[in-house]
Structure of Solute:sodium symporter small subunit:
Amino acid sequence: MKEVTTTAVSEEVKQWYWKKVQMITIISFIAWLIVAIVLPASAPSFKGVAIGSLPPLHWYIPAFISIVLGIAIIFIYALVMNKLDEELRRRVRI
């Protein structure tokens, strides 16, 4: 089993990390709000869109796009947080 070592982290680094986490979370939340509220509100603009012989899908298209973009936001958030954690490791030199 790998031994866990703890390193004292300065208050300056803790404050830097916390501010970055807050900013990334706020930006992700705003992006999610736009996807979750604006796209469904634009559903009437998709009226008349048909795929093959299916009936008009003006409510399903924005919902599908919202789900896909929501999942993309989750993966982007994870990637950005991983990069931030790498930067933290460099600063703390773990």
About this structure: Residues 18-92 form one domain. The chain is about 70% helix and 0% strand.
